[in-house]
Specification:
Helices cover 34% and strands 18% of the residues. It is of the alpha/beta class. The protein has one domain. Strands 1-2-3-4 form a four-stranded mixed β-sheet, covered by helices on one side. The two termini are 19 Å apart. The mean pLDDT is 86.
Length: 94
């Protein structure tokens, strides 16, 4: 889980790291959020822990590879955690 505008770890660095993580893996990017994740910050620990427990219990496929971008209004973009404004050329260099 990562804030779109995290001031400590830029999103392009997160995406580079993401590619090196073995599956199963899941990345959630929260739009218009910073490092503390604002309104979702209180939930992210329990959500992350639930996901980890499920993965360790074998309830998540070993090939699981999911990215989700969460808009502030609740809409989601599945398949790519990059924000809609993201410059695809920049992402290819990341």
């Amino acid at each position: 889980m990562h804030g779109e505008f995290d001031e400590l770890t830029p999103l392009d660095q997160i995406l580079r790291t993401w590619r090196r993580i073995p599956k199963p893996r899941e990345l959630w990017v929260f739009g218009n959020e910073y490092h503390p994740l604002g309104g979702v910050g209180a939930d992210f620990l329990s959500l992350g822990a639930d996901w980890l427990v499920a993965a360790l219990a074998g309830r998540i496929r070993p090939t699981h590879d999911r990215q989700v971008y969460f808009e502030k209004d609740g809409r989601t973009s599945e398949g790519d955690a990059r924000p809609p404004w993201w410059d695809s050329r920049r992402a290819l260099r990341a």
